[in-house]
């Protein structure tokens, strides 16, 4: 009965549809009533050639920490210090991706992704950060890149996803200008050798996550709680390192290499979309990102940043600011949570609205849900700094993820999260915001830093006892999105 009714309804819809084609995907022919309904969602499609991808980072997936001459990083030291990570978890084995990368590339291929963002472990390439390179370290990335290309997946490489060589930390780490220089040299060395095949490089992943979280709150490596002045100076040397890396890659890479960064900007979302609140978010986006994205884009710390810091402001030269703002080819932003902004009559013109206690979040308590962040983030980057090429370098979420009797994780909450965020990303592309690609975090469950293995972000469930990977429901969802180039 219901079936008949829906078939009749279908006939009506089909008759009025402008396009009624039959499309084939990995999930079979799309000519059933249900699938035809999807044909009416043409307005939900992404631009042609949109680059769908997934992302990981070296220390979170590779393991093999003592192999082929890799030196120790600050995350080895930190995670091996009792009490720093949940269950004292370390990345010693992680997903054993160092040995299983071929299998993992087949997971990507099955999803249909066109690109993969991975990071290079600096201490594999330069075990002590500087000096003699370790060719066996770079060899791993050569093998990885070749295997990706053989499978038609474009490699996007991040040069720093927080695994600083411990030897550099022993000499002051990001509190030292020498680290900025060493980072530039390492970036140039890698770009010279990979850029025949890798065409997109990200310098640094998320300044705030290793600076605020690692140098002020002590929650990430190197676990410091610096006083403000020293902290601001470390922030300055980190953005300087980014600029030196941009220049070194530009100098050493084969032509055609493109350079950007992957920054976890504070994403300012208007409390409601009125002109006054929207205008306030523009101001907020510049000020709340003053120490990183704003100085990189504008070559200047904002007046408010410097005057608020007072005697704790970083020491810098005009030359430093020029280096920091070296032109980029694109901007990557990692988008997770919204910061709500309202217009305000104070001189700064905006106020941050804290989340009410009942505000919903995912398994990670910091991961407050706000799909609009995926609209406002890229919109601000495009409108405030006139950026012409934007990538969402990370977006995704943690879920409690327990396999059901059939072995599959039915992560309906992650599917809900992704569907809603991607709808807002589609809105951005439809509004002409130049977002060229999206990297879902993450390909598979992995070492979630201080949370150890307790928070799972993967599209694939990893059984850490056996290293078996199993696609979750969200992997099927993402595969559909990619196949249709649309969010339904
Ligand atoms: C990204 O960070 C990272 O790039 C990636 O490596 C990570 O796996 C992924 O997201 C998921 O977390 O402990 O309360 O101090 C996202 C930004 C910054 C969010 C650090 C968590 C620590 C919160 N992260 N933050 S707290």
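-> sequence recovered:
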């Amino acid at each position: 009965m219901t079936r008949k009714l829906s078939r009749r309804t279908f006939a009506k819809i089909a008759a009025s549809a402008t396009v009624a084609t039959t499309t084939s995907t990995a999930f079979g022919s799309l000519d059933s009533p249900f699938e035809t309904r999807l044909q009416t969602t043409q307005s939900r499609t992404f631009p042609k050639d949109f680059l769908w991808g997934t992302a990981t980072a070296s220390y979170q997936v590779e393991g093999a920490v003592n192999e082929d001459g890799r030196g120790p990083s600050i995350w080895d030291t930190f995670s091996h210090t009792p009490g720093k990570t949940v269950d004292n978890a370390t990345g010693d084995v992680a997903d054993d991706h160092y040995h299983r990368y071929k299998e993992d590339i087949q997971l990507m291929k099955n999803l249909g992704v066109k690109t993969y963002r991975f990071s290079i472990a600096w201490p594999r390439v330069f075990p002590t950060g500087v000096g003699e390179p370790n060719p066996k370290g770079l060899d791993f990335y050569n093998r990885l890149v070749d295997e990706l290309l053989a499978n038609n997946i474009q490699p996007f490489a991040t040069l720093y996803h927080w695994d600083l060589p411990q030897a550099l930390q022993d000499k002051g780490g990001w509190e030292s200008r020498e680290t900025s220089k060493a980072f530039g040299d390492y970036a140039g060395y890698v770009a010279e050798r990979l850029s025949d095949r890798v065409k997109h490089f990200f310098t640094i992943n998320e300044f705030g996550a290793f600076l605020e979280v690692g140098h002020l709150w002590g929650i990430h490596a190197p676990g410091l709680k610096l006083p403000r002045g020293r902290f601001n100076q470390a922030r300055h040397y980190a953005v300087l390192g980014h600029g030196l890396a941009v220049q070194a890659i530009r100098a050493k890479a084969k032509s055609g290499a493109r350079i950007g960064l992957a920054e976890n900007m504070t994403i300012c979302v208007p409390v409601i979309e009125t002109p006054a609140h929207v205008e306030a978010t523009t101001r907020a986006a510049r000020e709340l990102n003053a120490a990183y994205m704003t100085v990189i884009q504008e070559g200047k710390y904002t007046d408010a940043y410097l005057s608020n810091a007072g005697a704790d402001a970083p020491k810098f030269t005009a030359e430093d600011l020029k280096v920091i703002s070296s032109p980029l080819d694109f901007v990557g932003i990692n988008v997770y949570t919204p910061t709500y902004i309202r217009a305000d009559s104070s001189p700064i013109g905006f106020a941050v609205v804290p989340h009410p206690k009942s505000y919903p979040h995912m398994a990670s308590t910091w991961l407050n849900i706000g799909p609009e962040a995926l609209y406002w983030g890229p919109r601000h980057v495009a409108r405030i700094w006139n950026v012409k090429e934007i990538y969402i370098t990370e977006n995704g979420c943690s879920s409690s993820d327990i396999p059901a009797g059939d072995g599959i994780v039915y992560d309906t909450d992650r599917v809900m999260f992704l569907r809603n965020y991607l709808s807002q990303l589609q809105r951005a592309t439809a509004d002409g915001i130049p977002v060229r690609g999206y990297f879902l975090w993450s390909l598979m469950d992995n070492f979630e830093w201080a949370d150890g293995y307790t928070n799972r972000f993967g599209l694939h469930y990893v059984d850490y006892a056996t290293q078996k990977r199993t696609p979750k429901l969200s992997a099927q969802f993402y595969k559909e999105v990619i196949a249709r180039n649309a969010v339904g």
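Residues 306 and 313 are 6 Å apart (CA to CA).
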